[in-house]
Sequence to fold (292 residues):
Amino acid sequence: MLGRSAISEIIRPAAAAAAAGLAVATAITGCQSATTARHSASAQNLQYRYYRSMMGRYHGGSMMGGGPGSWMMSGAGYRWMTGAGAGIPSWMTGAGAGIPGWMHGGRLPGYMMSQSADAGTVMGRFWANGPGPRVSPAQATRLGEQIPAGAQVSRSANTITFTTARVRLAVLASPAGGPDETYRIAGLVNPKLVVPRGARVSIELINADPDTAHGLVITASGAARSPMPMMTARPTFAGSALWFLGNPTSAGMHAGTLTFTASTPGTYRYLCAVPGHARKGMTGTLIVASSG
Fold:
């Protein structure tokens, strides 16, 4: 079984970005220390620099003269693409208002979509070399099969039940050897997760799909039926959204953490908010039990 710190020890920062980037979705709540605030600003700046360098490659880097390309090079364009708010990125805070525009009814620019009609494919390539933590394929495979500490696993019922006040689990997005566009947790595909009310939940997400971006959001139970779930839904709990991670590269698979408190009993969905993915099957049930 995974010990309390085992997952964190495996997920290591990329050499080019020891400070966090888009892939780091650890929620920052409450009062921040000055050190934390500076770290967050550094992560934001690192991510924004990468974004601008990538956007500048379109049209030979001549996008600053006006028009849609100029807007996409701006801070507003960056926020639209990533969901980043002012100051701390929204993938760190889980703020519902910070949903990426292309997940909320908008469309990526045509010059970005010229080689694919699928936004997830485009974004996976775009952020493939972005900053943030990574894991090796071997580490990802091990994490996807290991049983989390304190968990009771029923393979016949495809259910993982926790009764502990702290819950930590690893989730592989669309790994090899299983159904496409699904999650693998403790060797199960899209299992039902049961946690007690008030549990502090940390989910380590790893994008194992070589072809497209994936993320994970906790949201309302009916949202998965929509091709664009975030048009009508919001993250259920503060900190319960990691919008997307880029494609793996030779440097490893992108990894990130979302952390939230399961404060309200009920039945929810965990799903990939990349348009079309949840409806294709990239979703599962999360139950917050009223007792246990």
